[in-house]
Amino acid sequence: MNDDEVRQAMAALETYRLQLETLAQQAQILTASAEEAARARETLGALAKASEGDEIMVPVGASSFVTARAAASPKAVVSIGNRVSVEKSLDDAIAYMESNLAEVKDALAKVNDTIREMDTAYRSLQVAVQQEYQRRQQ
Question: Most buried in the list 53, 66, 98, 123, measured by CB within 10 Å?
Fold first, then answer.
C-alpha cells in the first residue's frame, strides 16, 4: 500500500465504524419495538380469552400494571403509524400486532446481517492496515 491507499483505508475504517454504530442503534430500536409489539400481542390475547367481568392486569408501561375488568365486546385502539390510531376488534388487533412483529423481526434480521457483513469487511481492512504498518516499521 502506498501512502494514499493507507489514508483511504483509514478513512474507510472510520466510515465503517460510524456505520456500525448507527446500525447498532437501529438494532436496539428494532429490538425494543419487537419487545413492545410482543407484549401488546400477549396482552391483547389475554384480553381476548377473558370473559366479561373477569379481572385482568393491563400493562401501562415501565413494568407497571393496572387492574381492569374485561368488557362484553372489547375493542382495541391500535397505532398504525405516523401518530394515527384506529379501533379494531381484538382478533384484528392481535393479527395486526403479529404482522407488525413479523415485519420488525424481519427488519432486525436484515440489520443484523448488514452488521455482520460490515463488521467482516471492517476487520479485514483493519488487519490489512495493521499489516501495512508493521511492514513499514521493519
Answer: 98
Domain assignments of the chain as residue spans, ordered by start? 3-137
Q: Cell numbers at residue 14, please?
A: 472510520
| pTM summary value | 0.82
CATH architecture of 3-137: Orthogonal Bundle (1.10)
Helix (H, G, I), strand (E, B) or coil at 54: coil
Encode pLDDT of 56-98 as tens digits.
888 888 889 899 888 877 889 999 888 899 999 999 999 999 9
Contact in structure between 96 and 86 (CB atoms under 8 Å): no
DSSP string, 58-99: EEEETTEEEEEE--SS-EEEEEEETTEEEEEEHHHHHHHHHH
116, pLDDT greater than 90: yes
| Unique residue bearing C-alpha cell 436484515 | 110
Q: What value does the CA radius of gyration of the chain take, rounded to a whole number of Å? A: 24
Burial of 100 (0-12, 13-18, 19+ CB in 10 A): buried
Q: Name the percent of the chain in helix, strand, coil, to the closest 5.
A: 70, 20, 10
